[in-house]
Each structure stands twice: as C-alpha cells, then as structure tokens.
Amino acid sequence: MKSLPDFSFETAATARGLALVAGVDEVGRGPLSGPVVAAAVRLDPARIPGGLNDSKALTAARRESLFAALHEVADVAIGMASVEEIDELNILRASHLAMVRAVAGLALAPDHLLIDGNLLPRNLTISAEAIVKGDARSVSIAAASVMAKVTRDRIMVDLAQQHPGYGWERNAGYPTKDHLAALRNLGVTPHHRRSFKPVHNILCQAISISA
To answer: What is the mean pLDDT of residues 5-22?
Structure first.
C-alpha cells in the first residue's frame, strides 16, 4: 500500500528557520477549456485534516469534505489564469502565474513554498523548492491539490450550464471522446483554449471551409 503524504518537508523547512510554510499546486493544464487554477495552503500542524492525499487519489465526495475542512483550519488562497492568458503565455507559464497569484492571496505571507512539479515559477520573491509528485509526498501540497481541484471542477460545472453539450460537468474540459465530438459538432466556445491543438485544428478547418 502506498504511503500517504506527510509533514516531513514542512518540518525540515521549519528546522531551517522558515516558520511559515505553504504548499502550492495547480489543476487544469491538460483540459481544452476553462482556466488553470492554483491553490496555496498553509496548514496548522495541530489541525491537519485526516486522509489528505493527492486529489486524483480521492473520491469526489472525499475531496468536497476535505475542501470544507481545510477552509475551517488552514490559510487557503486560490489563483487562476484565464483562457486568454493561457493562449498568450503558454500553459506552463500560465499555471505558474496562477500559482504566484494564489501565494499572494494568503492571509500571512509565507517564508517558504513547497511547489508541486520540477520547475519553480519565475519572479518568485519567496524561498521555494520544487517537489516532483509533491501532491503524493507533502501534505501541504496535497491540501493545495484538493482546493484547486474542487474549485476548478465547480467552475467547469457552472460553465457547462452556459454551454451544454460539451460534457464539462463530467470531463472538466479534458479532451474526452464526447468533448472532442462536441467540439466538431457544436464548434469552439469563448472558453476553449485556442492554442491547444484539437481546438486550433477545428478553427483552422472552419477558416479553410469559409475561405
């Protein structure tokens, strides 16, 4: 059985004199539609909700319950980058921008960041370390993954009501078979990422047909 994420990265940072440690993660790099959403979470070591894990390893019901619990006991902030920013910057830079915005939203400025992945965002003014598969290793990053995932899923459910037919309430904008079929049949919405290949190709086909 795989071990759950723990507080060891946070403890190590605190031992180096970095008292306020926040975990940072993003959700939504792969979808064809919707924003990329990041969360920053600073946990109280005495009040860590049980069962925190990488959001992908949890059921939707468990994520919702942890989302509510974390709002009660942790310093939480959400940051986003829009579809327009994704198309302008590229998805990596946009996801880093969302992370920086999330960190800036915390009630207390952290001394150190634990960031999921292998790259740190540019222009960080805070001590930070990148942790590969951090959402399965650091409980603070796991908490951030839950907050970002629930927030983004709710956004996609709202957008699905405005643009029915794409299945966003089920696929969260990822390129599933039904989403790709809807793109071909219904066309591109303002919430689609035009720089992503399946969307770009459909736009190019539309231009060539109308030309």
So the answer is: 97
